[in-house]
Amino acid sequence: MLHPGSKARLNPYTAEHFDPGTAFGRWARAICTAGCLPRKELFESWEFAKRVRRRFRTGRIVEIGAGHGLVSASLLYLEAGFASARCVDPREPASFSKLQAVLGDHWPRLRGRVTFEQAGLDEVHLDGDELLVSVHGCGALSDRIIARAIAGRARIALMPCCHRGDTGQLEGWLPAPLAIDVVRAGRLRAAGYRVHTATIPAEITPQNRILIGDPLPGAAPC
């Protein structure tokens, strides 16, 4: 059995390990043919997208630090209610176009719905109904995404990593990375958000906490 946390690159030969009779198996087999992604990113993007879909099923996705855009594509594959996805990153990797072309060939409904914007977070324009997502928003990037979401009253789903930030002086009770995420959840609540938390299997990544925020109608920040 393939270990889901391996950074080994998927390739056409690994496709046989995935069951074509399941939605995930078909998705994984297509990605294997692209031959450009680590196995770990397939599993973590899929597990993240599944948990986000339980809370959100409509609107436009804006993926920050998107890289090859697999998180966005996974959300669109799982949920037809999402209109489109914008993948934002200061640098476009070669794997983005290659991956999206392969997925579009397998699922024509995905063609043209995942686009790339070579930009920084501060350049992102929000005009309502967006869902900001980021997997492994490193260090302060997660806090900047939270601030951007609050300013635009956007929905948000994050899986932070490389934790640096405000621990709320909770280190006596909690490990520092967990304390930082607890403070982040409190920040969203204080800003008038309904907060949800989830995890993906730790065997995929130890940085496995998901923070989800949905702005409450009419709620004003405290």
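The above is record 1. Record 2 follows with the same two-line structure.
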Amino acid sequence: MRPMPWFRAESSHDPLAFAVCALGIAQITAWGTSFYCLGVLATPIQRDTGWSGGFVYFGFTLAVLTMGAVSAWTGRAIDAWGARRIMAGGTLLVSAGLAALAGAQAQATYLGAWIVLGVGMRMTLYDAAFAALVQVVPSRGRAAISYLTLFGAFASSVFWVVGHFLDQAVGWRTTLLLFAAINLVVCLPLIWLGLARRESADASPSMKAEGRASEGKPLTGRARTIAMILFAGVMSLNGFVFGIVTVQLVPLLEAAGLATAAAVWVASLKGFAQFAGRVVEIVFGRHLRAITIARIAIGVLPLSFALLLVAQGNLMALLAFTLLMGASQGVITIVRGALPLALFGSNGYGAVLGLLATPVLIVNAAAPTVFALLIEHWNWFTAQVVLTIAACASWLAMEAMSRWYERRPA
């Protein structure tokens, strides 16, 4: 079996392996303790405070909107001051936000804590980590991004279990305080040490060969602007789809005909599908261009949602839907970092990701509310049709972008 590139003896002084492993552990921890914490703590918070479920989840929506509002600034700050400093500062904010959330007695304090968390999450989660890896190993940024995403596939699974256990043992407030401490004790040193070294300017040819397929020269001028607009549109449509799936997968499967226990079991396989999709991209996609990977990953979405529409309670069809959709989402996470790198280059990469993430995060925050309104005013099937149309629109937008890219003047 061929070893992973970073384990070769000649790369003992190569910063890629250390940066990816350090950031990988930090990303599992940061995602699990902040972005996914309501997965198991929302009900205990409602029960203890008497607040409605809608209000409790509105705090998270406010955090995602805050992430969108500060995204462009964060990207510019990463380019100006370095991802190491920004991610370390973001970790401090995440810890402060979790501590404030733990002590929140009033609704205003609760919402304020989520705003702090929103700023911190934007400074520490994937978009910042992608930019950090490109700063550490600019010649192999796409490969590093692919490896990093392998770590994040199970963040929710790990910390939902940990969060549930801690809530049962010490309550939700102490659980959040422990989450805050974990970020300080685990994430902060990993970020600071893991990003301390950078690839040398004269990296060996074999190291640079570990990168992916040749992507051509970065776009400039009008072509760069058009590509940014097109890609932001593609990813915003994806943000609508996955903003809903992230919080509504179990209800979607129930509405398609599964009993609750079966729906939970099938939904739990999404994390495995994400991981598998990323492994396939690493093993078989290294000689494909990033835009080709994007077309394949996004092209799978309409097929998966078509299965959801026609399943009518068929377990195998709904299992296939979940696995295809999960694998697609796993690879699209890589695309979110790899395609901008291929199209626009490593210079100013943080700012580019910041601009592209702004509309995506806003759509992602609004999507669950829009979907709930569709269900309330029509029915689950109509809402599923809308979701399928959005998936088709994302695929058509990606195809249009690809055709434009191939036909543009060189």
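Confidence is low (pLDDT under 50) at residues 1-11, 204-211.
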